[in-house]
Amino acid sequence: MLKALKQHWPEYLMEAGELGAFIVSACVFTVILWYPGSPAARNVPDPMARRVLGGVAMGLTAILIIRSPWGQQSGAHFNPSVTLTFFRLGKIESWDAVFYATFQFIGAVVGVMVAAELLGMAVGHPAVRYAATVPGPRGARVAFGAEFSIAFLLMLVILTVSNARRLARFTPLFAAALVMTYISLESPLSGMSMNPARSFGSAVAARLWTGLWIYFTAPPLGMLLAAQIYLAVKGAHAVICAKLDHDNHKRCIFRCGYAKAA
After folding, report:
1. 3-state secondary structure of 239
2. Element of type H or E holding 151
3. What percent of the chain has pLDDT over 70?
4. Strands annotated E in the chain
5. What CATH number is associated with residue 157?
6. Of 165, 188, 225, 245, which has fewest CB within 10 angstroms of its CB?
7. How far apart are CA 247 and CA 241, in angstroms?
8. In this structure, what are the phi and psi dihedrals at residue 30, rounded to the nearest 5 degrees?
9. Domain limits at 207?
10. pLDDT tens sequence across 40-84
């Protein structure tokens, strides 16, 4: 444990910073698009149009984080479900997985606190609620199924693209495109999380625990199923690394086969 912490603490802090930045962005754009006092909210009354704009904003945020120096070094998981899945695939050491998940949760809570300082009372307004993710009007079962499905598809696409020589460098674009699509189309069902830490950070600030169990169970289960199917079809040797963007010169702390594959 101490050895992992001593050697890889920069990556742990990067993961915290990445998820913190993602949540700050989510809160900022939720205020811009949904807070009643926002000019954008008044001028874009159609909820679907707002969701599309929010999806584009968060998709671009995801690309910037994955392509950032921090994202290129840590692997840009900023999601315990992603980290758990790559641990299952044998690409991450056990203590690295533990610290990644721990710092992701810390980053989520701190990120919401930073957003609250930046945005004031607007981020706590009932129309914003710290960008909390809760089940939609169709209930918990639909929300669970939706979260499971979108997490499953995201991980299946990540594994397929990141391990294909010609497509690997486009992995951030594929991931961002799915985030954009999910926010635009799926968010009315579950709030579009796929991320236990991201949902936890908003829930703590909003004191809104409705359906939190969904976001702790459905995303990791969906991603683990995608990994299991990928292993059954391609085999463990086909998983090169746990980074979403490996086309760089940053150090890699994973069980990496990128150099050999290249």
Report:
1. coil
2. helix 140-162
3. 98
4. none
5. 1.20.1080.10
6. 165
7. 12
8. -70, -40
9. 2-261
10. 999 999 999 999 999 999 999 999 999 999 999 999 999 999 999
- 31 Cβ contact list (under 8 Å, min separation 6): 38, 119, 122, 123, 125, 128
Residue 191 DSSP code: -
Hunting for tokens 């998709």 — which residue is that? Answer: 59
The Cα 26–Cα 91 span in angstroms is 29
Residue at token pair 């829930």: 203
Number of domains in the chain: 1
Instruction: Give the orientation angle of helix 171-185 with respect to helix 47-67, to 10 degrees.
Output: 160
Pair 17, 70: CB distance under 8 Å: yes
Residues 6+ positions from 225 with CB-CB distance below 8 Å: 152
User: Residue 144: in which H helix or E strand, if any?
Assistant: helix 140-162
For the chain, the helix, strand and coil percentages under 3-state DSSP, each to the nearest 5 = 75, 0, 25
Cα 196 off chain centre by:
9
3 state SS of 188 = helix
Assign residue 155 a region (left: φ > 0; alpha: ψ between -120 and 50; beta: otherwise): alpha
Rounded Cα distance between 187 and 58, Å, is 13
Spell out the residues 6+ positions from residue 114 whose beta carbon is closer than 8 angstroms to its own.
20, 24
Closest residue by Cα to residue 116 from 103, 128, 104: 128
Q: What's the rounded Cα separation, in Å, for the pair 146 and 45?
A: 26
pLDDT score of 260 more than 90: no
Q: How many C-beta atoms lie closer than 10 Å to residue 135's C-beta?
A: 20
Q: Which two tokens stand for residue 164?
A: 């294909």
